[in-house]
Amino acid sequence: MRVSGIILAAGVGTRFGAPEAKVWARLAGRPLLGHVIDAFARSGDVDELVVVVRAGDEHRLGDLPEVGVPLHGVHGGERRADSARAGLAAASGKYVLVHDGARPLVTPELIACVLQAAEDHGAAVPVVPVPDTVRYVEGAFLRPTAVERDELVVIQTPQGFRRELLAEGYVLAARQGVDLPDDAAAVLLLGHPVAVVPGDPANVKVTRPQDLVLAERLLAPQG
Q1: Most buried of 79, 84, 151, 161 (most Cβ within 10 A)?
Q2: What is the number of structural domains in the chain?
Q3: CATH number for position 178
Q4: What b/e sequence results for 139-149 when a residue is b if at least 16 CB atoms lie within 10 Å of its CB, and e otherwise?
Q5: How many C-beta neighbours within 10 Å does residue 175 have?
Q6: CA 27 to CA 85: how far, in whole Å?
Q7: What are the pLDDT digits (tens) for 95-132?
Q8: Which of 66, 67, 73 lies closest to 101 in space, CA to CA?
Q9: How many Cβ atoms from other residues are within 10 Å of residue 101's Cβ?
């Protein structure tokens, strides 16, 4: 098997303020997770999908429409890194694409771009530039000097990797007790370079209820 998509859908979503995982929130009549699964299936590049869910949510995967790509559900862990490791353990592909289930507007084009860069370099992530002024805060006041943002980027998902490389990074992170903010951090810990590709400003992450409103507006022209 060449490519596995790993979709992380086990987050509690405390800031979203819902009793259930935010990936089940409705966007244009279907769950966020349904949009993600559909985009990966439409990409034509993914041979299987591994969806990492909270314990008790497995049955909900069966309520989603079939998309023509084999789909496996596995239980996540307390931290994002734990869920990512669980997804990787269940994946069979030579390459893996790890994606946050709360990014419902990912496109097949972005998926293909990240995969190509991962095949070329072993690891790749999509990024968008930081357009705003960035400063540090001390207490309730701004520091006088702005942060130089020319080389700053915001990292998105999906993040693509050669499977064995990412697995090696996870092992090293666990051995060193490093709390990984994302999957690229595990590969960087090995000293392996991570390539960047242009991200998509519309590939927003739904963290708060207002983000869902923004996603609805961004999705509307596609309808």
Answers
A1: 161
A2: 1
A3: 3.90.550.10
A4: eeeeeeeeeee
A5: 8
A6: 28
A7: 999 999 999 999 999 999 999 999 999 999 999 999 99
A8: 73
A9: 28
